[in-house]
Write a structure and sequence with these properties.
heterodimer; A: Rossmann fold; six-stranded mixed sheet; four-stranded antiparallel sheet; B: mainly alpha; flat; binds adenosine-5'-triphosphate; binds magnesium ion
Chain lengths: 266, 312
């Protein structure tokens, strides 16, 4: 798919004029976490959000996921306003949120148990995901027995299992070492291309953002606003080789500069 | 003599200092005094960093089995010694039967053939009453811990009822329900259910928000979240609540049996009192204690079995 076809895709996920204030009362202003954010993700796009810690990235994702109400503005999927969570929007949480009483395998199977999928198919899908995530050997372990990186992989597998239309990923590779991260990134690209899912992903890793996404939103902090929207002009079927191109470095440095300026300002 | 080109070696000419890191030449033999250094560090007078207390005084540290068992045995023997002392010393005006006399008292009760009947009578009341109490507590508690609406609705009346001493309801219950089993079971329920409900609600409230959110995004509806997230996460907590409040159920049962019963452990105590058989009273008290410890340990075991994930 080339750059030009993107224009033809319908808008899948829209955030319009989103304002989110925490704990504001009559006297106290509360925390203005997000202040007027507009974001659009077209069907089948993979878009990343980068921004300093505390700039409202998780908040934004939670509103799209329907887990928190917007103070003003709204998020919409396929033109329908989000009022609550649903299996059409799979999420990977920053804190993993694994079910501690379920084994790795059972955690991954949770979403499928909520579908009408036949049991045998469910099992096959779970095993395949465990294999890809390198978790087969740990399938019968409880989350408390896993390292941070393993937990993160379980969380990703669990969100991928029901193959949702929209994936909301909150720093899904944050706790992984560089090598595992690369494998996971390529796996995510693979899943994305295969399922045609629409993905909105938060990351701290600028290089990761450039490598994965079609577009990048750079958020400014306090309050969180969209500071810049950077298109990434690489084709969807990209390979790790692009990381060595000048164009890649240019985009990466541009975003890095935007983020650095942000830090200096504070 | 091996040249002093070693890694991190405390050298004599630089007291207290550490020689800078220098690459050891390829293939060079490991310097002999590295070993000395290690040995000297292991020595008794070697300098140390940080403090390391005896396991007995460390917060949340594992204790070796001998210490653990030893302390448990001492903990059991100490009150026994006190008892022995009180029963033999003439300085106290209290009439305390000796352990041997108590044992005889227990044997007397056993030979009268009343003991098993009493244990069963009291145990049955507790079993039925407390099962009803926990059933109500789990249903209502999970509801209150999950829905703010249920919490708002039930909180005030339950708090009100909780402050009415169940013992104060004994006359009323006997008046309403007669003197057979029903009022005793009702009293056990009333005496424990309000505590149980509020504590189960607390357990349910402690289910992390993120787990509920995760279940929602995986397609679970509210009822499914209740059944598949809030309930399993609450199981160990619920068993703990049952374990902790069970003592309150026994307390209220005793009051009920003291007033109106013809069987049961507390009833037997009043009988012993009438005939001034202090040895039998002591034997019965100890039986209460034993039943308590056994149920406590069983519930702990059940909690650990049902929720290995919550084990520390
Ligand atoms: N539940 C809450 N109650 C009050 N304030 C909150 C709450 N959640 C987030 N905030 C505030 O909103 C702001 C944005 O938080 P958010 O978690 O969205 O940041 P983030 O961009 O995800 O940061 P990070 O990169 O560290 O994860 C922060 O200032 C935070 O203090
Ligand atoms: Mg965050």
């Amino acid at each position: 798919m080339g750059e030009n076809t993107i224009i033809l895709r319908p808008e899948k996920l829209e955030v319009r004029g989103l304002v989110k204030r925490y704990g504001g009362g009559r006297r106290r202003p509360g925390t203005l976490a997000v202040d007027g954010v507009d974001i659009t993700v077209r069907a089948g796009e993979l878009v990343c959000i980068v921004g300093a810690s505390g700039c409202g990235k998780s908040t934004l994702l939670n509103v799209v996921g329907g887990l928190e109400d917007a103070t003003e503005g709204a998020a919409a999927i396929d033109g329908e306003r989000v009022v609550g969570p649903g299996p059409d929007r799979g999420m990977v949480f920053q804190g993993y949120s694994l079910f501690p009483w379920r084994t790795v395998r059972e955690n991954v199977a949770f979403g499928l148990e909520e579908t009408r999928m036949p049991k045998a198919d469910r099992g096959a899908r779970v095993e395949a995901l465990l294999e890809v995530m390198g978790l087969t050997a740990w399938a019968d372990r409880l989350p408390k027995e896993l390292s941070g990186g393993m937990r993160q992989r379980v969380a990703i597998a669990r969100a991928l299992a029901p193959e949702p239309d929209v994936l909301l990923l909150d720093e899904p590779f944050g706790a992984l070492d560089t090598q595992t991260k690369r494998v996971m990134q390529d796996h995510l690209l693979d899943v994305w291309r295969r399922t045609g899912a629409t993905i909105l992903m938060v990351t701290h890793d600028v290089e990761e953002a450039v490598y994965l996404s079609s577009r990048i939103y750079v958020l400014t902090s306090h309050p969180g606003r969209v500071g810049a929207e950077v298109p990434v002009p690489f084709p969807d079927d990209r390979t790790p080789e692009i990381k060595r191109t000048d164009r890649f470095h240019a985009i990466r440095d541009e975003i890095q500069a935007l983020l650095t300026g942000e830090v200096v300002m504070e | 003599m091996i040249p002093r080109r070693t890694v991190f070696v405390r050298s004599d000419d630089r007291p207290g200092g550490v020689t800078p890191l220098e690459p050891v030449a390829e293939g060079a033999a490991h310097p002999a005094h590295t070993l000395d250094w290690r040995n000297s560090l292991a020595g008794r007078n070697a300098p140390t960093r940080g403090t390391r207390r005896h396991p007995l005084f460390r917060i949340r540290d594992e204790l070796s089995a001998p210490w653990r068992v030893g302390l448990m045995i001492v903990g059991m023997l100490a009150p026994l010694a006190l008892w022995l002392f009180m029963s033999t010393s003439s300085s106290t005006s209290l009439l305390v039967p000796s352990p041997a006399q108590t044992w005889e008292g227990a044997r007397t009760l056993w030979h009268e053939g009343v003991l098993t009947g009493d244990v069963w009578a009291s145990g049955r009341r507790i079993l039925i009453g407390y099962a009803i109490s926990m059933a109500i507590a789990v249903a209502l508690g999970l509801l209150m811990g999950s829905f703010r609406s249920a919490e708002s609705f039930f909180e005030a009346p339950i708090a009100f009822m909780r402050y009415i001493p169940a013992t104060a309801l004994v006359p009323l219950m006997l008046f309403w329900l007669g003197i057979d089993e029903t009022p005793k079971i009702a009293l056990i329920v009333i005496g424990s259910v309000f505590f149980n409900v509020l504590m189960v609600a607390d357990v349910a409230r402690n289910v992390p928000r993120e787990l509920i959110n995760a279940a929602y995004t995986l397609g679970a509806g509210r009822l499914r979240v209740l059944r598949r997230v809030i309930l399993p996460h609450s199981v160990p907590g619920i068993i703990d609540v049952a374990r902790i409040n069970l003592a309150a159920a026994w307390a209220i049962l005793v009051v009920a049996e003291l007033l109106a019963a013809d069987q049961g452990l507390a009833f037997r105590i009043t009988r012993a009192q009438r005939f001034r058989q202090i040895d039998e009273m002591f034997a019965l008290l100890i039986i209460f204690g034993i039943i308590g410890i056994v149920t406590d340990l069983s519930l702990r075991w059940l909690r650990n079995q049902s929720a290995p994930w919550a084990r520390p």
